[in-house]
Amino acid sequence: MSDLAARLLAASELRGDFVLSSGKRSNVYFDKFRFLTDPPLLRELASAVAGLLPVGTTHLAAPEGAATLLVAAVALESRLPVAVVRKDPKPYGTMSQVEGHAPPGAIVALIEDVSTTGHQVERAAKVLEAEGCEIGIILLAIDRGGGKALRDAGYWVKSVVEIEAQTEE
Amino acid sequence: MSDLAARLLAASELRGDFVLSSGKRSNVYFDKFRFLTDPPLLRELASAVAGLLPVGTTHLAAPEGAATLLVAAVALESRLPVAVVRKDPKPYGTMSQVEGHAPPGAIVALIEDVSTTGHQVERAAKVLEAEGCEIGIILLAIDRGGGKALRDAGYWVKSVVEIEAQTEE
User: Where are the alpha helices (DSSP H) in chain A?
Assistant: First the structure.
């Protein structure tokens, strides 16, 4: 395991009595917000993600939620404009499911903090494709299993660290 | 109006036929995501917000949503750890309404991108206070009327730009 991976885990593994999203109980919980809200770790992770951006990328994107912290940091590093993909379309105003910058023809690097199943990332990718964007690459800060599912769905995927998903989100 | 304010407005005012959150129609819509997802504008705004941080601030916080883009940028500028305040407590895992770093005794600068009524910011402030944090100051990137309501509620408030709310969010 890389030094960065070890520090991300050390910052994020909480001990206690937790009910997981699946309904199961666990005495370990992986709290991704812990490293996304720590400026030195956020900066280091964003720099590593930016280092994976392919030549020709025109835009960044991320699903709404925790990943917006990461995509903001990667944007400041890369100077690429950003789109945020909502789970559901906004019910007023622009009525859009995509906020920010995602013009048709954009070559997008879709960024996610942690992916266990790939489902949320794949949904966001489909929304961007429906807007006329091309998903150039999917970049996972931490691949806890989602990378394989996304590759099986036909996407080019890279990750900064891979961690076996022994603990659920 | 300052030069920064003029550029934020120019980046964010959309023309078209919009239904606002109030249900009213408008041919102008103020889309705050437009400047929060533009790296040069985000960096300049974050730098201006960081310049308003009082001595003694130990943590930053923001309501979940668009403001997480801004608070990430301010955190990278100031190196202060961040809390993100959910609208509702997370239904599993930590079960918490506050993600990230908000220990009891923290002196928090609560940051919001745009505030028209102050309601969302005041709710987030109360959640942080219930966790034992002290709201040292509330920093609004753009005060479109919320600042007065928050001052009336007893908070110290500063803003980078003030814009009269002629158009609704």
Answer: 3-12, 33-36, 39-50, 67-78, 119-130, 146-152
